[in-house]
Amino acid sequence: MQVRIEHQTLTPALEYLAGRLKDLEAASTVIVCIGNDLKGDDAAGPLLYEALRGRVAAQLINAATVPENYIQTIIRKAPRAVIVVDAADFNAPPGEIAVLDPADIKGPTTSTHILCPATFINMIRAEIAIDTLFIAIQPKSTQLAQPPGPQVAAAIQSLAAVILTALGVNIPPGD
Description:
5 helices, globular, alpha/beta, Rossmann fold
């Protein structure tokens, strides 16, 4: 079965994500966007944050390069689900999106940041019971002072459309 969002056929990863998101309650979901907007495709998380800000019913955090600073904030919110979005190298074409099991994330080399996303998720799980999704976007380049590439920018737009369909309040940007 293919799912279409705004006249766009979804990749298998986005189709799987759409199915998972429809079962979540937006008000008890936290979306954590990780990345460095000064390092090319590593800006995937902050770009998603901007695409969703003011348009999604879930709680949204722009964790930038320091997701560990938000662990206690997330624990205090006591959400039922945490979605972590970050650029991560999983040996795919640039802009490819994968929904990974946090248990499959190996070491700090998967992410472009010091704290491995699995460690971040496990620190939260140690305190509260949560459903988790780790959404990885394959970067092409994470060089300093480079803009995000067109593949990652397109992936963010597709990902935002899926999230807004499931968890959004459909407020047009700028309102």
